[in-house]
Amino acid sequence: MALTDAESTKLEKQAEKIRETIITMLVSAGSGHTAGPLGMADIFTAFYFHILKHDAKHPEWSKRDRLILSNGHIVPVCYAAMAHAGYFPIDECRTLRKFGSRLQGHPERLLLPGLETTSGPLGEGLSQAAGMAYAFRMDGMKQRVYCVMSDGEQEEGNIWEAVMFAGKHKLHNLTAVMDRNNIQIDGMTEEVMPLEPIADKYRAFNWHVIEVNGNDIPAFIAAVGEAQAVHEKPTIIIAHTIPGKGVPDIEFDYHWHGKPPTKEEGKRFLKEIRTMRGKVPHEYA
Amino acid sequence: MLNKDAHLSVKVFADDIPAAPTRDGFGTGAVEAGKADPRVVVLCADLSESTRAEWFEKEFPERFIEMGVAEQNMATVASGMAAAGKIPFTASYAVFNPGRNYEQIRTTIAINQMPVKICGMHAGVSVGPDGATHQMLEDIGMMRMLPHMTVIAPGDAEEARKAVVAAAATTTPVYLRFGRTATPTFTTPATPFQIGKALLLWDCEHPQLALISTGSLSYQALQAARALAEDGVDSVVLHVPTIKPLDTEAVLAAARQAGRVITVEEHQAAGGFGSAVTEFLAEHHPVPVKILGVRDQFGQSGIPEELLAHYGLDARSIEAAARAFITKNI
Question: Is the keyword Translocase assigned to this protein (chain B) (predicted)?
Fold first, then answer.
């Protein structure tokens, strides 16, 4: 599954386009979360443009891999990736959070083909993914189930019920991805409610654990490849990401967890993304 | 007089009428549904004997999933399994399922419209000695407020069996409510059952009162109607196993005919079945209504019979309430 340099560069450029769309849609919406979606743009690019077996024109294809978004508040990155992958027109992203839009503030499965579940309330995606993985295994189906979670939602008890369940049943067709960006609404996770040693906790529950730089697309894809090769356990990829990645003004700042950029900030952020933080000139910047 | 079209048990008023808990109907119904459809699976949270989920487990061990004491996970795993093509039944006590996992049900089953069948056992005060923590009295209200949710409280074990089989065949989320204690099996295999349809148990030409009841207390309502009739007070008894969607046609007909309604349920008087009936009648055919249920308190330990009597829900209490309602309008 190793990428060529050309493939890596192509995916990285795709991720920048997705970041631009995220900023544009959040400015248009006037509310929503900024840091998480920007931090996860690389991982969602990797999923929708390399890892997932899916068909944007036939979202109900029964043999597709399933990607469950558990922390529904980062859905702008999911919408942006889906739009760029061809599920719906990119222009529709501007309807985010607007009355009548299919792009609800938190994802609603029945409104937008391609969404695998409804989420927002935290701690519930891993269980649903485990249920799918269990059912697919019952039926001898070979597709894989991925679940993207936040680190803050590890504080939910439901997560650990799911972790026990998947560990007991050795659901090797299940791969969880934790966005380890260290922030949540009220501050840093280790101050709000310490999670560490989070990797050891998962190991203790009989999971295979991989830690990776979540903003390094080739490294993340290699981690997913490793997860696919593990046949005795479910795998969690603890993806260390930079919240707000791509916009130096807001990187690592938890205040950006739950608010959108203003129009002026949006302009500045887009410039920072398009010029790769001022390093290169850009005709539209 | 008994409604002949209901095909009730020939022993309906006999002292030796057979009795079984409605949870037994879950056990037999789940096995029947499992035979009819290989997609049916049963998830249980460490209560497989008392929920009767083990009857399914014995028949279909590969389709039974032991969840441990983890009701939140049970609801959400079931949602995921439904998304992958299964028809999951989740079984635990109603205080936990849907009491403990309500938000999981709301988000991942109701909003998602997943065909999960949520089975809450040990509902009502007739749980008996376990006391208030295990006597669920708020579940009908919680579940009937959820959009997309069907809510069923079967009247006896036979009807419970039919309800489980019918629920498995629907593509919607369903909440089914069962009791712990053996109650009279007053219906028969010939008794009609259809989700969304009420069943007239007791009929007369000029009723002074309509007793509209759900769950196993419908048998108590029937006994009360018989005692009232012997005393010259005529009534009809409408058994309403499907609380949502409500059989508004049958409720309206009973209210029009009698002009006065008493509702009966083993649940809080606020927000439950009586509220559902009253909401409908207030908008479409306002008549005086008396709601018999538990009045803003929790249950307590005791034997089922004394608890039903204490909370005014056994046949004698219903009869007394009916007399007071008719004569003094209280």
Answer: no
